[in-house]
Backbone:
């Protein structure tokens, strides 16, 4: 499959490209709504949105089978949604309403949807990479034919768990694909101030016998194609892969961060490479009417606004179930 191949003027391929745009727009509007709700005091606790990074979540998800697994960081809303997690349940979780995807106990930083193949967002930087290896090892032992994709930020590459997990995956030939979402900042610090190589993941891949793979993280089709090749190679028993996707977050590190350390000209340059604008141009070049694209934007904004309004009108969760689901049997009592 050619990366960035042209979309036909009509037919299933064009329809799929339109569908991808709809998904990108939905994730963007969802994240923007979370950001706004946080500022309004409706989301409690830390919240980290990935506005500007949506193409990575959507592109990777398009390369996976339903039975494959993915696992990510605290900036995981887009990844859960891209795997099919119900938006209603995700937003209820963030707003502390009944029906939250983790029963209101996880909040923004721990979104999880095993049912849809998303094995969790992890608040401790790098902690989930060894877990990804565990998932992949289990599938390898069972000859399950599944692949695990592990998302992490560029700052994770300076964490010991990153090196330990990648080394183990390479030695054991695990069916895991590591995807570094390089948004240029390790929390509040430019990566150049913290890492001696310009590509913190790709430039270290060779140390573990892996090929350095890079991709434009704002081009959803390129992400899908590059990830697809790595996923299928891992599924065929060829071992792990390391992909570095270059992207940019258009907001601060968290919803509480104004991001004033991001130079205005830098933000402006990356805004021109907005994933939505990139894919919109693909659709227009393929003959999709601009009016249809605008309609998708408008309808999606209305859909997300109505979703948020409905959930805000619902009663907050109580403490009645605070001690349930502590164990696999759904209970709270220690078993010995």
Residues:
């Amino acid at each position: 499959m050619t990366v960035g191949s042209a979309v036909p003027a009509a037919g299933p391929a064009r329809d799929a490209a339109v569908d991808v745009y709809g998904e990108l727009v939905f994730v963007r509007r969802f994240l923007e709504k979370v950001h706004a709700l946080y500022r309004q005091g409706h989301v409690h606790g830390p919240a980290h949105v990935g506005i500007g990074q949506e193409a990575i979540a959507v592109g990777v998800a398009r390369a996976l089978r339903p039975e494959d697994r993915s696992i990510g960081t605290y900036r995981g809303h887009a990844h859960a949604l891209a795997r099919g997690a119900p938006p209603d349940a995700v937003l209820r979780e963030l707003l502390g309403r009944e029906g939250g995807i983790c029963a209101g106990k996880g909040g923004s930083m721990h979104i999880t949807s095993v049912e849809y193949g998303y094995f969790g967002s992890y608040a401790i930087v790098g902690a989930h990479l060894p877990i990804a290896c565990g998932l992949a090892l289990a599938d390898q032992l069972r000859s399950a034919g599944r692949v695990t994709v592990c998302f992490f930020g560029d700052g994770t590459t300076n964490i010991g768990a990153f090196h330990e997990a990648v080394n183990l995956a390479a030695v054991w030939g695990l069916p895991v694909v590591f995807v570094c979402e390089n948004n240029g900042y390790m929390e509040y610090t430019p990566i150049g101030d913290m890492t001696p190589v310009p590509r913190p993941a790709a430039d270290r891949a060779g140390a573990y016998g892996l090929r350095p793979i890079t991709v434009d993280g704002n081009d959803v089709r390129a992400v899908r194609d590059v990830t697809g090749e790595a996923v299928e190679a891992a599924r065929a028993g060829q071992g792990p892969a390391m992909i570095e996707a270059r992207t940019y977050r258009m907001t601060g590190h968290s919803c509480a961060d104004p991001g004033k350390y991001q130079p205005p000209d830098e933000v402006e340059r990356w805004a021109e490479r907005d994933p939505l604008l990139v894919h919109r141009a693909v659709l227009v070049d393929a003959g999709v009417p601009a009016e249809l694209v605008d309609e998708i934007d408008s309808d999606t904004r209305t859909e997300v606004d109505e979703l948020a309004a409905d959930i805000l009108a619902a009663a907050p969760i109580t403490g009645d179930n605070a001690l349930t689901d502590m164990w696999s049997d759904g209970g709270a009592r220690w078993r010995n």
Remarks:
- The domain at 25-39+47-311 is CATH 3.40.50.970 (Rossmann fold).
- The chain has a mean pLDDT of 94.
- The first strand starts at residue 69 and ends at 73.
